[in-house]
Amino acid sequence: MRFQQIDQFASHLKADTRASVYQSTKMTHEKRTKMLFDQFADPNRLRTIAGEIKQHAIENLDTYLPAVEAKLKANGAQVHWAADAEAACQKVLELMRARGATRMVKAKSMVSEEIELAEFLGRHGIEAVETDLGEFIIQIDHDHPSHIVRPIIHKNRREVAVSFEKNGLGAYDDAPEVITRRARQFLRHKYLQADVGLTGANFVSAESGRIVLVTNEGNSRFCLAANKVHIALIGIEKIVPRDRDLALLLNLLARSGTAQQLTVYTEFISGPKSPAQPDGPEEMHVIFLDNGRTEVLATECRDILRCIRCGACLNVCPVYRQASGHAYRSVYPGPVGAVLSPLLMGDRFAEKADLPKASSLCGACQEVCPVNIPIPDMLLRLRDKAKREHVSSPGTPPMGAWSLLASQPTAWRAALIGGRLINHIPTKMLPVPALRAWEQKRTLPEWRGGEFRKWLAQRRKGKSP
Amino acid sequence: MLNTERMPVTGKRVQLMATCLCDAFYDEMAAATVQVLEYLGCTVDFPEGQTCCGQPAFNGGDWPASRRVVRHTVGTFAGSDPVVVPSGSCAAMLFHGAVLEFEKESDLPAVEALGRRAWELGDFIVNGLGVKTWPGRYEAAVALHRSCHTRGTASGPAVSALLASIPGLRLAEFGEGEQCCGFGGTFAVSFPNISSAMGDLKLEHIRAARPDVLVSGDMSCLMHLGGLAAKEGQPIKIVHFAQVLRDALKNGGLI
After folding, report:
1. Residue-by-residue DSSP string for A353-422
2. What's the ipTM?
3. For residue A359, which residues of chain B lie inside 8 Å, CB to CB?
4. What is the CATH number of domain A15-294?
5. Where are the domains of chain A?
6. How many CB atoms lie within 10 A of CB A147?
7. Tell me: the pLDDT tens digits for A202-228?
8. Which of B46, B223, B231 sits opposite A456 (nearest CB)?
9. In a shared domain, residues B216 and B150
10. What are residue A360's phi and psi, to 5 degrees?
């Protein structure tokens, strides 16, 4: 029998990996919930308001994007627009080549993962070093992140120690402080040698043109401190209307993502070095990336663009916990990824049309989402889209004949009686793959079709209890 | 969240949607629902033409097939009386799922109207009829699995409160109660490995609480969990809360 790709991936997942993912996600989820409900009278109301703010922003990008461009320019930054991944990568390369730059240090940025920037630059002779510890480990391992916030959630420290040894970062030692110290020593040199620092942004305020970065390692500061050029690569959906909106969003982001009241570092960057701000890079370039977002905005799944990449939906998702992030074959895994990744494929939607199926539709994702995205509804919409576009879906039972039966009461009642056959025929003899799939893992209860109707008729005649 | 706006309950005449699972497998649960509603003074109509709420095809992604069944259901449950469903999942299909898949259809108003009449059984008893406690006796430690389709609705608290009020009954709380059991409709057969792994984890938590019986408002979750447990050779007793309410009445000599 053929089942869904994600299910097969999960069935082959190493027990160690599943344990790492499960323990870490469960702990963060539980801390997050406690923190939100201990500290706020009505966190669900806050999630709703935050969702409304972000929804307003994405539905008015035509106003906010020009506004933010004007503000950024007034603040001394240069603004570039990239329609797709290729354009964004080329712009970064062009900026670097124009300055004779060959070395970049990078802060964590999901958008740079999405456009595969580091690999692109590598192919063009430019070294782009990841400075977030998790991303650094991913890079030296030639691996891929499996979580939006915790890229190495699928690894344990023993695996990290092995790859450090393999990459010449010292003899095997899996003490976290040793690993951290070695990474720090290695990266300090990289910060000093680099020509360009690249960051993403968690938010951009249309009101002030400030970009906001949150980290726990302070690496984004190091990326900027010793460099002459700062490139910020930002998805167009990161805009918020006003600075004051950040109060709510930052409070929710840190609690939802890492169960912290506030991340250790929260940076507000208004522009390059100026008389009023004597520190920092001399040049600041902001590249706004579309890469399919405008098309998503035109669909009924536009709400997914509210996402602030906290990863709370991954942490709570029972499917993510079983399958881990790589199962999703996408930069964005988990529930949000199951919606966003197929949509960002554009014309190649079919390649990832199985992702929205990887959900029991339990709704936990929406319940924890700090911007209250109706993820289950979107998963359902995308299942409908996949069916309309005739994408095959292994293991999904065909529904045509069933729906005819279920809309003809006489046939339905006959089937209730006829169904008793399954009590007598082994299911492996029946041409119904769904039944066999069911029975692989579970017993099937006795078929008692028609019994309730019979009982009720008797009761109406005063003959049964 | 879910579209749960409902018409207030004024009379005591209701239409019962027994669900296709009860029609095919769990007749005793549907019978218990009738006995409970009649005990509460309701006149229970059972529209004979009923089949299914349309959810399997809706979740499976075949919305045209699902809409065909929903249209049939809308026709079958004509009238203005509340439609009571002993399943959080089928109730949510009526008041939320169907509305979603009909948003561009000309008969959306009829679908919305049925949605406003649809009540999950526990929600109906507690919030529709205003019954806050349950009499009789039920001597057991009960593990209550809150099915995911009641997430964000009034059903979860309603059923917990009703059960907790029954003399003799003790609710056995278990870990990660907010997590899904892994059923998920077509998910159970297209993702059998993940679905059963989720179920095993749920069973592990439930068993640790040492209940006498596993209770839920959705037979689909129970069919999955009970089926998994039986397949593994460690069967557990599963019953719908309607059966608990009915048996409490019986034990107390009230019916």
Report:
1. TTGGGS-----HHHHH-TT---HHHHHHHHHHHHHHTT---TTPPP-HHHHHHTT-HHHHHHHHHHGGGG
2. 0.97
3. 184, 187
4. 3.40.50.10420
5. 15-294, 405-460
6. 23
7. 999 999 999 999 999 999 999 998 899
8. B46
9. yes
10. -85, 5
